[in-house]
Design a protein that fits this description.
globular; alpha/beta; 12 helices; two-stranded antiparallel sheet; six-stranded parallel beta sheet
Amino acid sequence: MAALGWLTPRRRPATARSVLAGEAAAEAARKSALPAGADGLPALSEEVREPVFPVAGDLRAAAFFDLDNTVMQGAAIFHFGRGLYKRKFFQRRELTRFAWQQAWFRLAGVEDPEHMQDARDSALSIVKGHRVSELMSIGEEIYDEYMADRIWPGTRALAQAHIDAGQRVWLVTAAPVETATIIARRLGLTGALGTVAESVDGVYTGRLVGEPLHGPAKAEAVRALAAAEGLDLERCAAYSDSHNDIPMLSLVGHPYAINPDSKLRKHARALDWRLRDYRTGRKAAKVGIPAAAGVGALAGGTAAAVALHRRRR
């Protein structure tokens, strides 16, 4: 399965590889989408519901949600890596690298290109030669073990509001499309746009189709899916925590900044975009550090990495 990959945080126009990645993600998302009305999402308590805008019955409107730190605390690929380590897909030294990357992600609250590129390359080498069906089955188990308890209730409520209005809801993420599809299905969403890894006869080759679904590639994926599904982007909504997703947010008529990093917060305020912050603590709200609840055993590796870094300083 392809791993989480990242481009530089600087805004860039879409390249041919971005367009290819976006079109591949849109095609994969349409193939894996749930039928209309087959959401299966459990009822939410009144405590996490909040008033939102979706117009009931507007079938030309849809919602697009970033995954990492928007829908889920932390990065999906790191949780997935932890699950693969438990199943002896790789060695302890590689787990240590995953833990340090997760520590950076959680403390900085931003997507660092060097760390994310390393994570992507590591996972590509790990899954090369494995069957897609095998990784999908393992991904279901990993979701239950490490991801289910990390879903932000507030963001989930926003997604539910669109579902209740009869609209389609898609995840849009640089995480592997297989992982994203599992999460979308478990949350009762329509489907997922994600990074597409090349496979031949159901076996991963260790290469990507195009590039990671990040930055401009996300916008291209949303554009391609909207064209294929007959959506009016001016009536659609998009949600993200990262300034890297400004191209995607700028495509729609209803952009939301969720748990925003400082650059996105500034941009959103300048353009009067809607803001939601579900993190706890004044420090998290100020500098964009994700809440630390529920990291389980990975927190131990993260804390050790941070302690080592401080001692070296």
